[in-house]
Amino acid sequence: MSMIAIEGMEFYSYHGCFKEEKEIGTHFLIDFYFENDTKSAEKNDDLNETVSYLDIYQFIKKEMELSSNILENVGRRIVDSILLEFDTINWVKVKIQKMNPPLGGKMKSVSFSLEEKRS
Q1: 38 vs 60: CA distance, rounded Å
Q2: Per-residue model confidence (pLDDT) at position 39
Q3: Sign of torsion, CA 99 103 26 72?
Q4: Catalytic: 95?
Q5: pLDDT beneath 70, residues of the chain
Q6: Of residues 39, 43, 98, 117, which has the active-site annotation?
Q7: What whole-number distance in Å separates Cα of residue 70 and Cα of residue 52?
Q8: Alpha-carbon torsion 99, 74, 2, 39, what sign?
Q9: DSSP character for 7?
Q10: What pairing do the DSSP bridges indicate for beta strands 26-36 and 109-117?
Q11: CATH code of the domain made up of 2-117
């Protein structure tokens, strides 16, 4: 089993509980990790024998375009959509960072991580 990582994906989205967050939006960073059997692709140098990073990115982008109140909901949608679509993926982990959250103080980000293994 191999682990593939797509790190530092940047999105401008409208997630949050405050009215301003839904209207103005903010920056988000996403790291996504998954396990997939890549032995055949390694030997044959064939993209069709593994999972395309572009396909994963497109699923994450689609979920980031849908507004949510909380990051937990966004993370769950990302994990569920990818596990549903790609039956060769056995384990996923997503980390979502909301940059400069409006919490009344100076901070880089808040984040939510979700990890799930196919049962």
Answers
A1: 21
A2: 94
A3: positive
A4: no
A5: none
A6: 98
A7: 28
A8: negative
A9: E
A10: unpaired
A11: 3.30.1130.10
The confidence score (pLDDT) of residue 32 equals 98
109 strand-pairing partners: 99
Residue 1 confidence (pLDDT): 83
Residue 101's pLDDT is 82
Helix axes 53-64, 71-85, angle to 10 degrees: 140
pTM of the predicted model, to two decimals? 0.92
Q: Residue 10's pLDDT is what?
A: 98
Q: Is 84 helix (H, G, I), strand (E, B) or coil?
A: helix
Strand partners, 117: 91
Helix (H, G, I), strand (E, B) or coil at 14: coil
Query: In what helix (H) or strand (E) does residue 81 lie, and over which residues does it extend?
Result: helix 71-85
Q: What is the pLDDT of residue 2?
A: 93
Q: Return the residue matching tokens 């569920």.
A: 80
Q: By the 8 A CB rule, do 9 and 56 touch? A: no
- 14-23 burial: b if 16+ Cβ within 10 Å, else e: ebbeeeebee
